[in-house]
Write a structure and sequence with these properties.
mainly alpha; 6 helices
Amino acid sequence: MRAALRLADGLDLFSRAIGLGARWLAVLLVLVQFLVVVLRYVWGSSFVWMQESVVYVHAALFMLAIGYAYLIDAHVRVDFFYGRWSERTKAWCDLIGIVVTVLPFCWLLWWASWGYVERSFRLGEGPMARGGLPLQPYLKALILVMASLLALQALSIAIRAVAVITGRAETLFPQKQTLSA
């Protein structure tokens, strides 16, 4: 179990690094959107590539931060019952949820998206609009990255859930921190 918990620590460290790096995309998103608005309404000008970059940065922000959101327990959950449960009951609930929903969802997303992403790279898919960014295959590849990041973090939480259930750990989210950490 020690080795599994070390693996979970490593996965948590990886998710934290990706999440803390991805948060800077929020700053970039605001700045680029601000520039798009200023260009349009002050100078009456616009660039398609700049408008498309808002879509790319927005997608990257949310798809790269998914594992981190799960790590810090910031995902959507109905806490009406869950909040009152013991750590062991929460661990059982999370473990069952991971095995029944999260990991199958990640697998389904990979399975359904692989051909879509592969075809985009094979065809050398261009920009969404004339004058846009020629990065569409990479945008689509973020679907696979997102599924992978979510699956890795789910594996970490599953390991921790087993540790809580077997009495080898006290809590499911030992390093729960906010974005300001």
